[in-house]
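Field reference: "sequence" (input) and "structure" (output). Example, V-type proton ATPase subunit F:
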Amino acid sequence: MAALTGAAGAADRTLIALIADEDSTTGLLLAGIGNIDQHGKKNFFIVDSKTPTSEIEASFLEYTSERKDIAILLINQHIANKIRPIVDKYTQAFPALLEIPAKDHPYDPSKDSVLRRVQKLFGE
């Protein structure tokens, strides 16, 4: 019965969440990922140079722990680096965590927590 409950829970996860800079957020919102629910909660969080790390952490924890409608969490890699200890501790299957590049910050595979775990599994 627990497997059925897990499957039903995964079926409820229909949104992509985003923690990113303004340019990445604008592009993905134009692509149609934006959602604001009946309580006014958004599935995206825009980070700029003045955003405190505590707000980024709170947003990450909301999307990964509290929200049960998020299937995938996209986060700019340079923003993930600001909260790297929390990102590295995250091991849940849902929401899936994907680090993405930003316009001014190219992707660095050596910093990607998921890729490092996969390499560790294969002994690389």
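Residues 1-6 have pLDDT under 50 and may be disordered.
The first strand starts at residue 15 and ends at 20.
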